[in-house]
Structure formats: C-alpha cells, structure tokens
Design brief:
Elements lengths: L2 H9 L11 E5 L5 H12 L11 H10 L2 E8 L4 E9 L8 E8 L9
Antiparallel strand pairs: 1-2, 2-3, 3-4
Helix pairs in contact: 2-3
C-alpha cells in the first residue's frame, strides 16, 4: 500500500481510546504498529512531515533492523495511547539514538504518559 492509500485509510478512521486506562511502557511489538500509525495520524494529520510513521509495515521493519526504536505506552487492552521514536541523528557516534517524534493521544496528555 502506498502513502496516499495509507493516508486515505487512516483519514476514514477515528482513533480514540477509552480514557483512564492503565498502561505499560515497552518496546514495539508487531501488533502495536497499527496503533502507533493511528496515534501519529490522529495527532498530526495528513500533512505530517514524516508520513512513513503512518505505515505499520515500515515501523515494524525499521524497528527490527535498528534504523529506529519505537517505544509505546500500551494499555491492558493493547491500545497505544502514546509513543516515541528513537532515531539516528547526526551525532558523531552513529550508534547513538535521539528521542524525537513523540506523540500522546489527547485523552492521555494530562497523565504520566
């Protein structure tokens, strides 16, 4: 599926989750990738400068290769209420990751997520 198809699909959905759920922070599991993509899209919309984060296949592949590291806040139901992506920046040591591209759903912004 190309970027335009992914954006059209995500635009048809409303991603919101039940507020007040407990959550755990952990690394990306393949079942999380769709929730991460929905989280990014629901916060930033179609004009986001890094649309690859809307693509669950990209997230899984890039994370498994070590190109990025995705950290998620996952509810007991498996919903993703926030996430952050560690990526390689221009640091002198190419193994160093920088935390960026961090999003939290509006329902969880005033929580510890």
């Amino acid at each position: 599926m190309n970027s335009e198809d992914i954006i059209q699909k995500l635009a048809k959905e409303t991603y919101s989750i039940e507020p007040g759920q407990c959550y755990e922070v952990g690394t990306l599991m393949p079942g999380d990738a769709e929730g991460v993509a929905r989280c990014f899209f629901s916060v930033y919309g179609a004009g986001y400068a890094f649309p690859q984060y809307f693509n669950s296949d990209y997230l899984i592949k890039a994370d498994s290769k070590g190109d990025i590291r995705v950290v998620v806040a996952r509810t007991g139901k498996g919903d993703i209420d926030g996430c952050g992506v560690l990526y390689h920046s221009s640091a002198p040591n190419p193994r160093v990751y920088e935390l960026g591209r961090y999003v939290v759903l509006p329902e969880y912004r005033n929580t510890d997520v």
